[in-house]
Write a structure and sequence with these properties.
81 residues, two-stranded antiparallel sheet, alpha+beta, 19% helix
Length: 81
């Protein structure tokens, strides 16, 4: 369901921004995880991952999502002592 601004409304809440955490996975792939709605996307590289994220979001919201999608990447640094 959409509100007057065209943003998606789910369970009475306005959904106009999603945040995905991007992590490296085995075999040099990447995964993006959105924690609030449980949307997950996988790809071999970040460019393909962005497209896959959009596809998964539109699938989840039945092609009615209008808003921002943020991605956050964290890098682990190992310090040997």
């Amino acid at each position: 369901m959409q509100d007057i601004t065209g943003s998606f409304v789910e369970n009475g809440e306005l959904v106009d921004e999603l945040v995905f955490v991007v992590v490296d996975v085995q075999d040099d792939g990447k995964a993006a995880i959105e924690g609030r709605y449980g949307i997950v996307a996988f790809a071999d590289n970040f460019d393909d991952l962005k497209s896959e994220i959009v596809d998964k979001v539109q699938e989840h919201f039945h092609s009615q999502f209008k808003g921002k999608i943020r991605t956050r990447q964290f890098v682990d640094t190992v310090i040997h002592v």
